[in-house]
Design a protein that fits this description.
By secondary structure, the protein is of the alpha/beta class. The chain contains twelve helices and 19 strands. The N and C termini lie far apart (about 50 Å). About 40% of the residues are buried. Bound molecules: 5'-deoxyadenosine and iron/sulfur cluster.
Length: about 450
């Protein structure tokens, strides 16, 4: 019995797919890389932007023919999209060959649902109020890195964002559960732990014992052995000086902060309900740079939010130059039904959004180029992550600051820390060679 999982969207979904794989493997299924020969096909969906949603509907629709040839195939749709208002109903009507629809935090019902589907009962379970237990096996695919959820959901309600509606309110996992998972992963040989949450900095506010994010970082930072700790995503309104100090104090916590800005205009930030101003954000960047001069700071930016003027956009470009991000995920604003921004006046025409994203990408590209050029000849500790599939005998890995580097070596190095001297840089991509300590 074979399974195939389509994963769309963010790291949260990548990690959920590892949990889905673990559940299916526990039932005797094995992974296949050929969708059409699978006995169970899972769509782990994303709905953050309309383009993602359209692509997924296309892929689900394309499965109809395969399912007609193989009626015993079980088709599952889960993740954020199925949690949106009306979507479960739409899937049942338009794609009746889908057997199971699950929400974002009832993955632990998957096993029962598959058994029901085998008895030919269609099953719809969409419910995010249920607490997502982490007691099932996970089939991890990202060695030497391991993803670890610390909180689920989001309370921030940025006016453009669908996430709080599809992933529910913030729920923190007990600190002791997270510690047990992290210690197990380190004892299994994982070399990098990445803590995941929609807003990691508000971790613990709902826990009874005053546990908070800096406490969690300190507890993990103090664990013995050579490993790296990363975390994402940080909300600028909640990233405290204490967190910056903890990152500076513990050498195994990476100087790498993902700090989505979304816009460089205070007026737009206000309408996005981000609860910081342009100046607040730039001050925060300054605080980080003071304490962590080698930090790699990355961001998410959106263009074409309703009412964004040319001047608002120029403010974003200016902020990008000042912040000196090592990289930025740039998005065109996508109108999401059910969010406040959906019905805001002055929606921006597509051509204007297109033009702005092109200019934004060019601007960030220049910044990245500059940072990359300054890295040439320097040596960095890199954790070897895996093969670069485009070049023979080439592996890639990250510096502590999060920059991806390619270098020649074989697969036996995966999971090892090496020193790499940077030789050339092509904008975002760095190339180097492994050197010994003496060199
Ligand atoms: N349109 C475009 N981008 C969005 N994001 C969130 N919602 C939207 C939307 N409606 C982006 C934000 C967020 C990232 C994960 O996705 O930049 O930080
Ligand atoms: Fe969405 Fe804002 Fe929550 Fe991030 S913080 S998930 S952008 S609502």
């Amino acid at each position: 019995m074979k399974y195939f999982i389509h994963t769309y969207g963010c790291q949260m979904n990548v990690h959920d797919s590892e949990k889905i794989a673990g559940i299916l493997e526990g039932m005797g299924y094995v992974a296949t890389s050929v969708q059409d020969e699978a006995d169970i096909v899972v769509f782990n969906t994303c709905c953050i932007r309309e383009t993602a949603e359209q692509k997924i509907y296309g892929h689900i629709g394309a499965l109809k023919k395969v399912k007609m040839r193989n009626p015993d195939m079980i088709v599952v749709v889960c993740g954020c999209m199925s949690q949106q208002d009306g979507v479960a109903q739409k899937i049942r009507e338009s794609y009746p060959f889908v057997d199971i629809i699950l929400g974002t935090s009832n993955l632990n019902s998957l096993k029962d649902a598959v058994q029901d589907a085998k008895r030919r009962k269609h099953c719809v379970k969409v419910d995010f109020e249920q607490y997502a237990e982490e007691d099932f096996n996970q089939s991890r695919t990202s060695y030497p890195n391991a993803w670890v959820n610390i909180n689920y959901g989001c309370n921030n309600f940025c006016t453009y964002c669908i996430v709080p509606y599809v992933r529910g309110r913030e729920r923190s996992r007990p600190l002791s559960d997270i510690m047990t998972e992290v210690k197990t992963l380190l004892s299994e040989g994982y070399k990098e732990i990445t803590l995941l949450g929609q807003n990691v900095n508000s971790y613990g506010h709902d826990l009874p014992d005053g546990e908070d994010f800096p406490t969690l970082l300190k507890n993990i930072g103090e664990l013995p052995g050579k490993f790296r700790l990363r975390f994402m995503t940080s909300h600028p309104k909640d990233l405290s000086q204490e967190v910056i100090d903890v990152v500076a104090k513990y050498p195994n916590i990476c100087n790498n902060i993902h700090l989505p800005v979304q816009s460089g205009s205070t007026e737009i930030l206000k309408r996005m309900n981000r609860r910081y101003t342009r100046d607040d954000y730039l001050n925060l960047i300054q605080k980080i740079r003071q304490k962590l001069p080698n930090a790699g700071i990355t961001t998410d930016i959106m263009v074409g939010f309703p009412g964004e003027t040319e001047q608002d956009f120029l403010d974003t470009l200016d902020l990008v130059k000042q912040a000196k991000y090592s990289s930025a995920f740039c998005f065109i604003y996508s109108r999401r039904k059910g969010t406040p921004a959906y019905s805001m006046p002055d929606q921006i025409p597509y051509e204007v959004k297109r033009d702005r994203i092109t200019r934004l990408l060019a601007c960030q590209n220049e910044v990245t180029k500059e940072i990359s050029a300054a890295m040439i000849n320097n040596k960095y500790e890199v954790l070897v992550e895996g093969a670069n599939n485009h070049y023979a005998n080439t592996m890639c890995g990250r510096t502590e600051s999060g920059r991806l580097v390619n270098f020649k070596c074989d697969e036996s190095y995966v999971g090892q820390f090496v020193t790499v001297q940077i030789e050339k840089a092509k904008s975002a991509t760095l190339w180097g060679r492994i050197v010994t300590e003496e060199e």
